[in-house]
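User: Sequence recovery, please. Input:
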């Protein structure tokens, strides 16, 4: 109970100005919400998380723990997949292509540098064809060498008229397999599965049916995107408390919600994608 414009904490009366001061210093834990707008607002990608760990008012701030090597790898992989997924939300549609370029055994590259040169030559040919047709190309790729020595290149690329023939004709080292993303087994509405697949690396471990980790299947990988795919800055809000579940903004529906525990902070985090019911583009 408070009287005379004062607040009580541990049997000691504090003026309200003291609590306001603590809020300004950040000693009361807050929740942050980052909202990214894609496709002129048709798609909203939202992240909510606790803004660090703080002590209670009047107590010292808890010391930050240095993340372990495994935790840093988890954070880096999460960020790579997040940016990949957001680039898809901004520049890629379900009707665009998910393709794979493979190598004939006798034409496998000796190392990653050689594979990069093969990719650059092929994507350069695709880019020239797109420009000739008056279109800009947006691509995301992952070059992978398996643990048994085979090489292949996964590509996500925007579709134009004749794109299948252009992509197939540009690759001369083996086969080309492509499908519209919406027809792929990796498709989901917010591109989570495809982004995770496109950002695999030698550290990726798939889960077995019994929940244990399988042996690595990738010896080395190289992920990149075309340079013409910048991401917008998010709008940041500070919330007073962690809500049990998010509610969609008026005129939108929530496509998918992902929740978990940050292994570094030990606190919940959440991300969800909202899509406009009547899209503009």
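Assistant: Recovered sequence (281 residues):
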């Amino acid at each position: 109970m408070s009287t005379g414009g004062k607040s009580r904490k541990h049997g000691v009366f504090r003026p309200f100005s003291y609590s306001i001061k603590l809020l300004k210093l950040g000693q009361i834990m807050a929740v942050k919400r980052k909202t990214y707008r894609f496709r002129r607002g048709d798609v909203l990608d939202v992240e909510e998380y606790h803004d660090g760990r703080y002590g209670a008012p009047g107590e010292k701030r808890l010391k930050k723990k240095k993340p372990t090597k495994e935790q840093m790898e988890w954070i880096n992989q999460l960020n790579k997949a997040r940016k990949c997924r957001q680039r898809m939300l901004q520049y890629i549609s379900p009707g665009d292509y998910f393709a794979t370029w493979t190598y004939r055994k006798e034409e496998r590259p000796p190392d990653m540098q050689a594979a990069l040169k093969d990719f650059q030559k092929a994507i350069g040919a695709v880019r020239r064809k797109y420009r000739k047709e008056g279109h800009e190309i947006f691509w995301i790729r992952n070059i992978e060498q398996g643990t048994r020595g085979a090489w292949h290149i996964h590509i996500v690329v925007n579709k134009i008229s004749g794109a299948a023939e252009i992509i197939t004709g540009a690759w001369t080292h083996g086969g080309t397999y492509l499908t519209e993303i919406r027809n792929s087994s990796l498709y989901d509405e917010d591109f989570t599965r495809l982004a995770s697949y496109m950002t695999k690396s030698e550290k990726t471990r798939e889960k077995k049916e019994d929940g244990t980790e399988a042996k690595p299947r990738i010896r080395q990988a190289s992920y990149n995107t075309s340079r013409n795919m910048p991401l917008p800055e998010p709008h940041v809000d500070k919330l007073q408390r962690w809500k049990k579940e998010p509610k969609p903004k008026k005129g939108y529906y929530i496509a998918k919600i992902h929740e978990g525990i940050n292994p570094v902070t030990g606190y919940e985090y959440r991300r969800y994608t909202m899509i406009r019911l009547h899209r503009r583009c």
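The chain has a mean pLDDT of 86.
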